[in-house]
Design the sequence.
């Protein structure tokens, strides 16, 4: 078992890479994706309000009505001072999202047609709620201007504008077969489809290259150690690595989700991971046969893993992908990996045939990739023989 031990000796030397990729997965999933998923429920909708401070030096009908309108939509708060440094502190500490300063002469300038210099908003340019607030200010004044143009006096124009901006609509969130909220379990296993290809290709491909060097092959030819043994032990090392990876993430999922992850779902999701690990190992084998450069391996691994993640429903749900994109994605193994996860998450006995079809297609893709790698290897060997 010399080659088998050498395989894991090299694997151990690359353990830092494994920790880095595992850390990337854990950080992105549990630090960003899952918290956002918990905070954004599709079953409810709440209008966003902006905290704002206001100083009214005009003290006119229009300034009063503008303040009343904004207070009905957003949240008016008091601050200690409107001095420049005090405002910067309030904005920086997010005590307010914007500050409004209405100068003396605002109403007269508005009636004459341009009150831009008399109404100033202070905010952080990238603050979304502040942008929403600014739109509400402009919208109200636009309605008032429209009513004034139509012949209404200022009081009536302000009240009419207030009535329009105060109207509300019932909001319902679509749900169903095509538009639905994905569960945290789906996110957990979907993102593994990205990290498995990246991790396995970047870690296993260099090992396969090291064990396939000309110097090592020449030494084997001079010994009684047959090539069949070295290949079988490399295959065994790859299989043990893949099974170990699946076991680690499966156990972690069971511990994290507990009873939420039922026995049947757990078994099917683990089997799906195992099938996809075979695909990832096949990709690593293919990459090891087309290049021996670590830099190229890392580049190819990122392109393949991220490409399939974006096109095959890992980063973007299927219902947000166009029909053309989904058609192309069906020719990639990650599509069937994600499709199996979606079917397993809403598991019924009727879904089993589709689930196993997805498993079979994943393994078929792995077989095709391995055959392609062998063809390339054979072509290179024949080319060297001719030369």
Sequence:
């Amino acid at each position: 078992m010399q080659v088998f031990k050498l395989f894991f000796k090299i694997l151990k030397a690359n353990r830092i890479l494994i920790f880095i990729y595992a850390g990337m997965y854990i950080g992105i999933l549990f630090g960003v994706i899952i918290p956002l998923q918990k905070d954004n429920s599709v079953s409810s909708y709440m209008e966003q309000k902006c905290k704002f401070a206001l100083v009214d030096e005009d003290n006119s009908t229009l300034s009063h009505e503008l303040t009343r309108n904004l207070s009905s939509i957003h949240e008016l708060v008091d601050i200690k001072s409107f001095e420049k440094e005090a405002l910067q502190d309030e904005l920086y500490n997010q005590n307010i999202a914007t500050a409004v300063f209405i100068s003396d002469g605002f109403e007269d300038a508005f009636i004459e047609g341009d009150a831009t210099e008399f109404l100033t908003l202070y905010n952080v340019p990238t603050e979304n709620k502040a942008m929403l607030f600014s739109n509400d200010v402009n919208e109200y004044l636009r309605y008032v201007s429209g009513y004034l143009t139509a012949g209404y006096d200022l009081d009536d124009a302000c009240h009419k504008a207030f009535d329009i901006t105060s109207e509300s609509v019932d909001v319902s969130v679509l749900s169903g077969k095509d538009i639905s909220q994905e569960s945290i379990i789906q996110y957990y296993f979907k993102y593994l489809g990205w990290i498995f290809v990246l991790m396995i290709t970047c870690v296993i491909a260099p090992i396969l290259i090291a064990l396939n060097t000309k110097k090592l092959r020449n030494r084997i030819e001079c010994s009684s150690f047959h090539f069949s043994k070295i290949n079988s032990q490399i295959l065994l090392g790859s299989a043990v690595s893949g099974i170990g990876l699946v076991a680690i993430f499966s156990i972690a999922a069971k511990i994290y989700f507990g009873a939420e992850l039922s026995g049947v779902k757990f078994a099917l999701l683990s089997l799906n991971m195992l099938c996809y690990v075979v695909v990832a190992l096949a990709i690593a084998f293919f990459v090891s046969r087309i290049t021996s450069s670590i830099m190229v391996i890392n580049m190819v691994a990122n392109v393949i893993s991220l490409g399939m993640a974006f096109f095959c429903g890992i980063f973007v749900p299927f219902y947000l992908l166009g029909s053309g994109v989904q058609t192309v994605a069906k020719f990639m193994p990650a599509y069937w990996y994600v499709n199996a996860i979606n079917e397993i998450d809403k598991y019924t006995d009727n879904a089993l045939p589709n689930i196993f079809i997805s498993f079979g297609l994943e393994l078929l893709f792995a077989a095709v990739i391995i055959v392609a790698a062998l063809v390339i290897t054979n072509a290179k060997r024949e080319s060297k023989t001719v030369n």
Notes: Residues 41-45 have pLDDT under 50 and may be disordered. The two ends are 35 Å apart (CA to CA). The beta strands are 51-56, 75-76, 98-102, 119-123. DSSP finds 15 helices and four strands in the chain.
